[in-house]
Amino acid sequence: QVRLVESGGGLVQAGGSLRISCAASTMTFSTYRMGWFRQAPGKEREFVAGISRNGGTTNYADSVKGRFTISRDNAKNTVYLEMNSLKPEDTAVYYCAAGIAYYGSDPRRYDYWGQGTQVTVSS
């Protein structure tokens, strides 16, 4: 069992930046692929970014490409999402997820989820 805890969410003005983190309670963090998703009120959960086990490969949703950066520190069992040039439409609860064999856009293929952290972008 892997427990994921997100942190770092908050309120930021449009155009601003925010970094959110996800800490994993497992000694085998480096064996998991990781992803970030988000869910706005009344909308389905959507993929934001994914990262391979060693951080060498990443993928992003078109809506965040060039603005968001996913990274990980396996020594700290933590994955990060650096968000720049934030827009009001980025407002959502952000979730991290761990996949044994997957870090793509299908949420059904992830094995563990965090409880989420709220990110609100004001205009």
Keywords:
single chain, 123 residues, mainly beta, seven-stranded mixed sheet, four-stranded antiparallel sheet
Describe the structure in your own words.
There is one protein chain. This protein is mostly beta strands and 123 residues long. It is built from no helices and 11 strands. Strands 2, 4, 5, 6, 9, 10 and 11 form a 7-stranded mixed sheet that branches. The protein has a 4-stranded antiparallel sheet with strand order 1-3-8-7, with no helix packed on it. It is globular and about 40 Å long. The mean pLDDT is 96.
How would you classify the quaternary structure? single chain
Distance between the termini: 40 Å
Based on secondary structure, the structural category is mainly beta
How many β-strands, per DSSP?
A: 11
**Large-scale geometry:** globular
Beta-strand content bin: over 45%
Mean pLDDT score = 96
Largest sheet: 7 strands, mixed
Number of helices: 0
Helical content band: under 10%
- Element string (H = helix, E = strand): EEEEEEEEEEE
Radius of gyration: 13 Å
Poorly predicted segments: none
Summarize it:
By secondary structure, this protein is mostly beta strands.
Layout of strands and helices, then pairs:
Layout: E1 4-7, E2 10-13, E3 18-24, E4 33-39, E5 46-51, E6 58-60, E7 68-73, E8 78-83, E9 92-99, E10 112-113, E11 117-122
Parallel strand pairs: 2-11
Antiparallel strand pairs: 1-3, 3-8, 4-5, 4-9, 5-6, 7-8, 9-10, 9-11
